[in-house]
Automatic annotation (TrEMBL):
One of its GO terms (molecular function) is hydrolase activity. Signal peptide: none annotated. Residues 37-259 form the AB hydrolase-1 domain. Keywords: Hydrolase. InterPro entries: AB_hydrolase_1 (IPR000073), AB_hydrolase_fold (IPR029058), Sec-Metab_Biosynth_Hydrolase (IPR052897). PANTHER family: AB HYDROLASE-1 DOMAIN-CONTAINING PROTEIN-RELATED, ESTERASE_LIPASE_THIOESTERASE DOMAIN-CONTAINING PROTEIN. It comes from the Bacteria. Pfam families: Abhydrolase_6. This is Alpha/beta hydrolase.
Amino acid sequence: MAAAVTAMAGVAVGTFAVTANGASRPEAADRRARPTIVLEHGAFADGSSWGGVIERLHADGYSVVAAANPLRGPHSDAAALRTVLDHIKGPEVLVGHSYGGSVISQAATGDPQVKALVYVAAFLPGPGENALGLTNKYPGSTLPGALDPVPYTNADGTTGTDLYIKQDKFRHQFAADVPANQAALLAAAQRPIAQAALEEKATASAWQSKPTWDIVTTQDLNIPAAVQRFMARRAHAHTTEVAASHSVAVSHPGLVADVIEKAARATR
């Protein structure tokens, strides 16, 4: 009887090992093949704006990094993002929201680890272009009237202007399809962008050489839909349009995650 129990245990253990190995090895290989998703927020936001998107990507087995964007200028912000990218092992998909699109366009240039770019209600500047000029290419942005400029002085004595969105105008301007209480939190926690960052011209555009996806927000009051469509067509991007505000990652996290995953699957 003891011998039979031992034999049965051996069979059970052996069966479990085969089943476990058979299930885990493909899963481990699948995870290794998946790119890391790197999210770059834009102006008037921070990394928490990607919360709903991150939850969905994690649930589907993706590693995610939501980088902190200094919002000082495309070149210096791209250098900060490069330190994050250089620390990650393996392939990456870069995702930029709003001004974050300018940053990923610069940071990904010449980097073979970056396999795809995803722009979310974002800028795709060409060399010599800046966010301010692109915003004004077509009418529709009401951002100037919602801004709250705050002068600052650096430690070296140089001065500049930080731009916020006035809190009482934030929801209408930036997040009209986000619940009021959530929009109020976003308004209070918003991070300012240096005015000079919107005027700094791009010198490189990774979308010219890398596969590109784009989410165009048709109810956007920051970057008019016509501007977004122009940039998406020029980049030959795989484009998804949605009736959403500029804060589409908050209001439609499932859609944003789906587009990111499409880009990620196309790289494998």
